[in-house]
Specification:
Length: 457
C-alpha cells in the first residue's frame, strides 16, 4: 500500500510539472516581449503587390515650403564657409507669385535702381523683405544704351544695341555721361536728356510692375557721389518721365555701403571702418564708412566723375591704333571716322571686341582681337592691357588713399576694403590697391549688383 502511495505521489508530481512548466515558459516569453521593442512581422505576401510607401495616398497635411536658401550647392563641391549673417537671399522673380494674400502687390515694395554708365541694375525688395534682382531678357544687367528710331520712339538695352548695328548714329550707349548736355542728337533728331534717361528707367519700371502684378513700388535711384544739384534734378526729371513722381535719390557709395554693412556689419567692431572701392564703366568712387552706435556713417568719400572701365577700353583702342595706323593709315581712318554704313558697323564691332578682350584679360593671360577692315587678328597679352590701364587705375588708387586720409584716425581701423563695380574685376586694381594701402581687398561675386541691392535695402 505504502509503495503504491509513493508511486502515485511521484506520478502526481510529474503531471503537475508537465502542466506548470509550459505555463511558466509562456509567461517568461510574454514578459521578454513586453521588455524589448516590437520587431516587424515578416511581410505577408500580397496580390497585387503593395505600392511603395511614398506613392501611397497620404492624408493631406499643410506643409509650408522650405525657406529659400540660395542655389543648391553641388554635393561634391567644397563646403562654403559661412561668415555673413543671414540676409534675404535673391530669388528669381519667377519664383514669386503675386498677388499673395500675405503680401499685397506694390504695398511696401521698394525698387532700387542703379542707373549706371554702361549698365543699369535693379533690385526689388518685397514687403516681406526678400530681394529680387529684376531680369531683363533673362539677365540681371540692362545695358543703359538708348536707340532713337525714325518715328521718334526710344528703344532700350539689348534692343538698342541690336538696332544700332545698322544705324549706330542713332545710338547713345552711355546716356549717363550726357547728364549735362540738355539734349542729345540721335540720327539727326534732338532728344531731351531726361527723356533718354527716362526711357531706361521706364524699362525698369515696366519689369518691376510686371513682377508686382501691375502695382508701382516706391523707387530709389542712385547717382555718383560727386553729382551736384543740377545733375540730380535731371535724374529726378528722368524718373518723372518714367512715371515716378516721387523718386528718392541716393549716392552710389552710400547704397553700396548699406548692402555691404548689412552683410558684414557684425564683423566690424564699433569704431572700426570699412572702405568701398567702386570702379564702374564711367565713374569711380572711394568711400570710408565708420561703425558707430550700430550703424555706418560716411567718414569720407572721393569721386572721379570721368574715370571708369570705358577709359580703359579707349586706352586699349589707342594701343590697337598705334599698330594699325602705322601699317595703313587710310584704312585705320575708316575705322576711326567711318563714313559708310559698312565702316560704321566695322567700328562698332571693333569697339565691342576691344571691351570683350579687356574683360577676358582679367581671366586669361592673353587673347586674340579681330580687327575688321584689316581682316587681321592681334595677339593681346595681359601685360599690354595693364601697361595702358595703369595710369587710370593709379588715379583710382590715389582717390582711395585720399579718402582714407580725409577719414583721419578712423581709417587706421579699416577692417575691409570692398571692390565694387565691373571694372574692379581687373586684377591690376586688386594688386595696385593692396600695394598702396596694405589691406587685401575683398572681392565680391557680383560686384555690379551691390549698389542696386543697397538702394533697395
Ligand atoms: N572681367 C572684367 N574685367 C575688366 N573690366 C570689366 C570686367 N567685367 C566688366 N568690366 C567692366 O566694368 C564696367 C561695367 O561695370 P558696371 O556695370 O559696374 O558699371 P556702371 O554701373 O555701368 O558704370 P558707373 O557705375 O561708372 O556709372 C565696364 O567698363 C566693363 O567693361
Ligand atoms: Mg555703377
Amino acid at each position: 500500500m505504502a509503495s503504491i502511495g509513493l508511486f502515485q505521489l511521484v506520478l502526481m508530481l510529474l503531471v503537475l510539472l508537465l502542466i506548470l512548466v509550459p505555463i511558466l515558459v509562456v509567461r517568461r516569453r510574454a514578459k521578454a516581449r513586453r521588455a524589448s521593442p516590437a520587431r516587424p512581422s515578416p511581410p505577408r505576401p500580397s496580390f497585387p503587390p503593395a505600392a511603395p510607401a511614398s506613392a501611397a495616398p497620404v492624408a493631406a497635411t499643410p506643409v509650408s515650403p522650405a525657406p529659400y536658401s540660395g542655389p543648391a550647392t553641388p554635393i561634391s563641391g567644397p563646403a562654403t564657409p559661412i561668415s555673413a549673417p543671414p540676409v534675404a537671399a535673391p530669388v528669381s522673380p519667377a519664383a514669386v507669385r503675386f498677388p499673395d494674400p500675405a503680401m499685397p502687390a506694390g504695398r511696401g515694395a521698394h525698387l532700387g535702381i542703379d542707373f549706371g554708365t554702361s549698365n543699369t541694375v535693379a533690385v526689388l525688395r518685397t514687403a516681406d523683405g526678400r530681394h529680387l534682382p529684376l531680369l531683363f531678357d533673362g539677365s540681371p544687367v540692362l545695358p543703359s544704351a538708348v536707340f532713337a528710331a525714325d518715328d521718334g520712339r526710344l528703344a532700350v538695352g539689348r534692343d538698342a544695341l541690336h538696332l544700332a548695328r545698322t544705324a549706330p548714329e542713332r545710338l547713345e550707349p552711355a546716356p549717363k555721361r550726357c547728364i549735362d548736355d540738355g539734349h542729345l542728337l540721335l540720327g539727326g533728331d534732338e532728344h531731351a536728356v531726361p527723356a533718354v534717361i527716362g526711357a531706361v528707367l521706364a524699362r525698369v519700371l515696366t519689369e518691376a510692375r510686371r513682377t508686382l502684378d501691375g502695382a508701382t513700388p516706391a523707387v530709389t535711384v542712385t547717382h555718383p557721389a560727386a553729382w551736384g544739384p543740377a545733375r540730380r534734378e535731371t535724374l529726378l526729371a528722368a524718373a518723372e518721365r518714367a512715371g515716378v513722381a516721387a523718386a528718392e535719390l541716393l549716392p552710389e557709395p552710400v547704397a553700396a555701403a548699406r548692402f555691404l554693412t548689412r552683410l558684414h556689419g557684425t564683423v566690424v567692431a564699433p569704431g572700426g571702418a570699412i572702405a568701398v572701392y567702386d570702379f564702374g564703366a564711367g565713374t569711380f568712387d572711394a568711400t570710408v564708412l565708420v561703425h558707430r552706435g550700430g550703424r555706418f556713417d560716411v567718414a569720407a568719400t572721393e569721386g572721379l566723375g570721368d574715370t571708369g572701365g570705358r577709359d580703359i577700353d579707349a586706352a586699349l583702342l589707342d594701343e590697337v591704333a598705334r599698330v594699325y595706323a602705322a601699317r595703313d593709315a587710310a584704312t585705320w581712318q575708316r575705322l576711326e571716322r567711318p563714313a559708310t554704313a559698312a565702316d560704321r558697323r566695322a567700328r562698332w564691332t571693333l569697339l565691342d571686341d576691344v571691351r570683350n578682350a579687356k574683360e577676358m584679360l582679367s581671366r586669361a593671360s592673353s587673347t586674340l582681337l579681330y580687327v575688321p577692315l584689316f581682316d587681321d587678328e592681334l595677339l593681346l597679352a595681359r601685360e599690354q592691357l595693364e601697361a595702358v590701364a595703369a595710369p587710370i587705375v593709379e588715379r583710382t588708387v590715389a582717390a582711395t588713399k585720399s579718402a582714407l586720409w580725409t577719414a583721419g584716425p578712423a581709417a587706421s581701423t579699416v577692417a575691409a576694403v570692398f571692390l565694387v563695380g565691373g571694372a574692379s574685376r581687373l586684377p591690376l586694381a586688386t594688386t595696385a590697391l593692396h600695394r598702396a594701402i596694405g589691406v587685401t581687398p575683398t572681392t565680391l561675386e557680383r560686384p555690379e549688383t551691390v549698389v542696386a541691392e543697397g538702394a533697395a535695402a
